[in-house]
Amino acid sequence: MRITVIGTGYVGLVTGTCFAETGNTVTCVDIDASKVEKLSNGVITIYEPGLEKLFLRNLKEGRLDFTTSLSDAVKDAEIIFLALPTPPGEDGSADLKYILGVAAELGKLIKPGDYTVIVDKSTVPVGTAEKVRSAILATADADISEAFDVVSNPEFLREGVAVDDFMKPDRVVIGTSSEKAIKIMNELYAPFVRQGNPIIFMDERSAELTKYAANSFLAVKISFMNEIAQLCERLGADVDMVRKGIGSDERIGRRFLFPGIGYGGSCFPKDVQALNRSAGDVNYDFRILDAVMKVNEVQKLHLLPKVKQFFNNDLKGRHFALWGLSFKPNTDD
User: Fold this and answer.
1) 172 in a domain, yes or no?
2) Residue 232 appears among annotated catalytic residues
């Protein structure tokens, strides 16, 4: 298949490279000319274990290329992935200006009589697929309502193991009501699910919500364990033993049960905020998420009183070493 990936950040570069690895012809487009030049010359712009080898192989074999021209990139594309940033706004909601801006440009490029699947790969609020469709139609010079479908296909990549996550996914979530789009997306992902891991088709809104729900649930687990850790300190229990005891229950699982100074990174904080904001937009008081965010803010400060107590409140002239600056192992984030 001919695939275009718009955006060469973390998600876009992993997505484009992995699709090229399964034999597709992939063009990645970005407005950053210096980044495109580096990538075109074989200089990878992010660190992710296993990615560079696939990137260089597919670049050399001509299945992967890069450009700054959107019109050149989408020409003859069967599928266009939107892998663009959705940073949090001042109110915590996801800012869709980059996605909707590109959608408006696509409206001028899609031709009647053609058919293209437009895929939201970014993490976006419920209802974004409809907004993308409207933005495309608003700038079209002709009736292209039958020339494309907008699909939600959220990514579930973990930094440090993103290539494995993409090539061997636990599941692939695809939101679309179009039978034509279902057929194309099924064919695209078939090489990745040969071990029996499912492609789960659903409506667009459910797919959009699935990503936020997944990340928010993991944030709930982290905040819950931090609360348990606080209680263990006061009761004289060992939180590590408690973690092992409850993690052995297969209904709970062992992952995301390590107490610490709170969740962070590029996804959890903004996704929890965005889901909470979406709830507020429909007048729903998402009390659990309110508590999760509050616990997380307080937890960030939990170590400071311990340090002050250890040094009898005398921190003047002390030198402190910070072990570990990256957000997690095997990343440059």
Assistant:
1) yes
2) no
